[in-house]
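Note to self: keep these together.
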Amino acid sequence: MREIDEIIIHCSVSIFGDYRHIRQWHLERGWSDCGYHFIVMNGIRNYKSIYKNYLDGLIECARPIEKNGAHCLTKNATSIGVCLIGVEEKNFTTNQFDSLERLCRKLVLDYKGINKINGHYKYANKNCPNFIVENFVKERNLL
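Structure:
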């Protein structure tokens, strides 16, 4: 098993999507699979959806944790990548944030080496995931 010390939070920069969409987008970029380990859905599965549904907050397993991610160039070997479907903080749902909290708590319990939860923006010249992860971690008392 690889040594994991961090969770890195991302967003899809799309108002809809799920594992299948993200995987397809990544395959089209020449990657071998979805780059993230988990996807947190917002309930809008595709562009034809006209309402949010029971999938809001659903956590989909994507890339197996045993495999290095393809989500943060310098940190793929030692991190777990989590992607929220959405564009910016005002678009993310309460269910998504609650699910993200539960997922982070579970990962911190399961992988004792995790001592950081950061936004992708910490390692890339991007705003991703378009909310301040440090505030989320502090408010939810995750570490």
